[in-house]
Amino acid sequence: MPLGTIAVYNDTDGVGIITDENGERRPFSGMETQTTREGQRVAFEVVGAKATNVIAVR
């Protein structure tokens, strides 16, 4: 699974952006994640251009 950081998260829309280690930015939905905290390191899967199954890196 790629690693990245939650760059932004919008509580109102329930969506955010993850920046991966290569600097690519991928959208994700709060429905697909265990964490929505900006700056949180995460691991995720990729479906198309979207991040999914986002989990916090401890």
Automatic annotation (TrEMBL):
Residues 18-37 are annotated as: Disordered. It comes from the Bacteria. Residues 1-56 form the CSD domain. PROSITE patterns: CSD_2 (PS51857). Signal peptide: none annotated. This is CSD domain-containing protein.
